[in-house]
Specification:
The complex is a heterodimer of chains A (about 110) and B (about 120).
Chain A: E1 4-6, E2 10-14, E3 19-25, E4 32-38, E5 45-51, E6 56-58, E7 62-67, E8 72-77, E9 86-93, E10 102-103, E11 107-112
Parallel strand pairs in A: 2-11
Antiparallel strand pairs in A: 1-3, 3-8, 4-5, 4-9, 6-7, 7-8, 9-10, 9-11
Chain B: E1 5-7, E2 10-13, E3 19-24, E4 31-37, E5 44-50, E6 53-57, E7 65-68, E8 75-79, E9 88-95, E10 105-106, E11 110-114
Parallel strand pairs in B: 2-11
Antiparallel strand pairs in B: 1-3, 3-8, 4-5, 4-9, 5-6, 7-8, 9-10, 9-11
Classes of the chains: A mainly beta (about 110), B mainly beta (about 120).
Chain lengths: ~110, ~120
Amino acid sequence: GESVGLHLPTLSVQEGDNSIINCAYSNSASDYFIWYKQESGKGPQFIIDIRSNMDKRQGQRVTVLLNKTVKHLSLQIAATQPGDSAVYFCAESPGGSNYQLIWGAGTKLIIKP
Amino acid sequence: DTGVSQNPRHKITKRGQNVTFRCDPISEHNRLYWYRQTLGQGPEFLTYFQNEAQLEKSRLLSDRFSAERPKGSFSTLEIQRTEQGDSAMYLCASSLGVGARTEAFFGQGTRLTVV
């Protein structure tokens, strides 16, 4: 079946460095993508989204890049802080009248002091 | 209204018992979603409401699962005759949108343990 997946289950980054979390998706019809952050014991927290008619979107300290040619999504976090430690999920919306989100397994981001 | 609220936060039940969870979405949000999440995995879609209408239902939602949103505001998810495999975090989310997709805001979840 079609699914969203992640390249790395765990990413360790030095505090202050930039983090890049990658995601591959397989449904070429997906038209909306979201990155969520989930801390232990909490629900997912929205970080940033991007529609398929864009290839880049910036937020506060975060940038999402979308490459539709290779069906790849990435989340860049600038100047990573200890509070960024969490599991990061990308999710895709299949398009049309289907409003569900299809999620990958997540990447755990670990910040080294 | 500070966000999506889910109750209870934790539920331990014996196999075979029925359980019901409640979700209060962000007021004015017309869309409401239920997801299930097991440890180390991403959430899996269960069902979606637009106002009071249940518009999508996953194949994961067996006959033992039922969800309602009677007045287009809060929603309940009931699991009948619980099984150990039902143990998971049940997440509710809501969003506001007409046509276009917008970000969904999640509650803290209800963690169900079936013993």
